[in-house]
Amino acid sequence: MPNIKSAKKRVAVIEKKTSQNKMIKSAVKTAIKKYNAAIAAGDIAEAEKLLPVTVSAIDSAASKGILHKNNAANKKSALAKKLNEIRTFAPAAKEEPAPAPKAEEVQPVAEEAAPAPKKTRAKKKAADAE
């Protein structure tokens, strides 16, 4: 136990900051758990809504020095990667083939005019000059 007044104050300040840091770390972990739960449930809309909230919590902790900036970047990258993976695999599994249009509903498309031939004057002039 410190005897000097300034040392006693430092102990009190450190305890206060430690509890604040624990609170912020806990909030980050909770946000990540909620996001991971949405991903595990396959709820893309909820995950997309939670991603900015979670990234914001991670950035806030990193700016306060609670998380190292590289650690925060790795966490954000992992979160985005999970969302991108579920986006790519979920639509392929959930897509149903669209019903084919009926013949009477299809309207004929007007034929497009053939594109005009490209002019190659520059090559001919260069060949004539030689």
TrEMBL record:
<comment type="function">
    <text>Binds directly to 16S ribosomal RNA.</text>
</comment>
<dbReference type="GO" id="GO:0070181">
    <property type="term" value="F:small ribosomal subunit rRNA binding"/>
</dbReference>
<dbReference type="GO" id="GO:0003735">
    <property type="term" value="F:structural constituent of ribosome"/>
</dbReference>
<keyword id="KW-0694">RNA-binding</keyword>
<dbReference type="GO" id="GO:0006412">
    <property type="term" value="P:translation"/>
</dbReference>
<protein>
    <recommendedName>
        <fullName>Small ribosomal subunit protein bS20</fullName>
    </recommendedName>
</protein>
<keyword id="KW-0687">Ribonucleoprotein</keyword>
<keyword id="KW-0689">Ribosomal protein</keyword>
<feature type="compositionally biased region" description="Basic and acidic residues">
    <location>
        <begin position="93"/>
        <end position="105"/>
    </location>
</feature>
<dbReference type="InterPro" id="IPR036510">
    <property type="entry name" value="Ribosomal_bS20_sf"/>
</dbReference>
<dbReference type="Pfam" id="PF01649">
    <property type="entry name" value="Ribosomal_S20p"/>
</dbReference>
<comment type="similarity">
    <text>Belongs to the bacterial ribosomal protein bS20 family.</text>
</comment>
<feature type="region of interest" description="Disordered">
    <location>
        <begin position="91"/>
        <end position="130"/>
    </location>
</feature>
<feature type="compositionally biased region" description="Low complexity">
    <location>
        <begin position="106"/>
        <end position="117"/>
    </location>
</feature>
<keyword id="KW-0699">rRNA-binding</keyword>
<dbReference type="InterPro" id="IPR002583">
    <property type="entry name" value="Ribosomal_bS20"/>
</dbReference>
<dbReference type="GO" id="GO:0005829">
    <property type="term" value="C:cytosol"/>
</dbReference>
<dbReference type="GO" id="GO:0015935">
    <property type="term" value="C:small ribosomal subunit"/>
</dbReference>
